[in-house]
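Could you please consider the sequence and fold following this short note?
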Amino acid sequence: MNKNISILAGFVAATFTLVSCGDDFLEVKNPTGEPLEEYYTTDERLNEALTSAYAPLHWPDWDNKAYNDLTVDAEIMGDDFWVGGASITDNQHWHKLFNFEADGNNTLATLWTDFYSGIKRCNDVIKYCSWGGGTEENRTSFAMQARLLRVYYYNILWHFYGNVPFYLENLSLPYRAPQLSADEIYGQLIVELEDIINSKVLPMRWNAAEAGRVSQAMAYMLYTEMVMYQNDNARYSKALGFMKEIIASPDYSLNSDFAALWKESGEWCSESIFEINYNDDQGQRDWGDAALNAGGSILPTLISPNQWPGGDGWNSGEDGWGFLPVRLETYNMYAEGDTRRDATVWDVRQYQYTERYQDTHLWLAKYRPYSDNNKDCPGSKNLNYNNNKRIYRYAETLLNAAELLIATGGSSSEALQYLNEVRTRAGLTGYDNCTIENILNERHLEFCGEGKRYFDLVRTGYAASVLVPDNYGYRTNTWSPSKKHIPLAQSELDADPTLVQNAY
């Protein structure tokens, strides 16, 4: 495990400004004051710029403006969790999105600035590397990492907003780019991603000292995710080939113990393809400057019980905010003997604490708080847990390959083998046959709480029949295709009159 990328990112990020709903976040301030062309002339300084481009990966959970952790953002629109919090007005935009009644004033507004800042920083790196400083090998690697990061940032905006401004070179006054349709965005990104992959510049896996950098395997996973979400059948065979390359690689394999994946010792294990690093021992994230400082994650605080009495590895006096309680039906969907149940759901029905809205006494165990995970933080411990965010795992590679084999008419026995590798790892008897329904069921069980379920329902056409009013009176609306892309923030529409609001 290595968290150097996240640590350095915070320090370097302080040399770049970020102001929402304005033009300041597009301005670069050189830390030494000398012309940029004279500053970015060494490998060390180019790596500083690249590290700053990685920094926005860490921002969404709390970026000084709003709590928009991507796991919560996606899971509240699915069928496994409630929103929770203090009341239905606590982080009201989440409650509105949960009930499919969001608007320009109740949407994931800060993701826009977070990831367009990332895109801007990636463009800077690519430009600086073109000036010829440093060694050719490092320039090539740094530029390719920036290009892949840029696709990843756009991918998040594309998944949530769909129709967004698109540019590959930084803007000048009046800082406006054409707003492309979701299909046009996909067309631009997938070609860029194919070029990155074909270059073969990035390693299949970085060594431990560089864990946290984007890799060739991460590019393969991102490509496959995008192709499958777009239902781009013409590229399924290529995506399947990428999945088989990862499967054939000695760099990746299933971890035998599912629960161990979510411990600090499980970070960057053989199953991990891409994670976002967080660290507590240099945790400097604090109120007022969380985005620009290095450190840990606030997610465990967001999604845990309020006024905890102590026990189960979490000390008395620790505090959670009660967002994202697990539905009882989610706990019950796991069969007896499925080791993923207790590794996914933190069952505290035997504990007494201050209950918050929609509280079930069931919480997401994958990112639950442990006192050991922020014990080294010198400041605000509830902002600095060291739980890495898992983005792509080898288990998803196997299930992607199984689904793509079925979709392309490939070997059903090979698909069944991949599917059952995941299922039997969980301590269950394997399926007798490999169907899309079995694959989706396994994805549901395997990736619960990892932000994938909602998008799986949308891409496979099940959202309208699954995301319907519940029996508790919490969700009263039904998802419809117009809800695929959430509303753009009204502040962005006000800042740029050429933007067109999504028909939500």
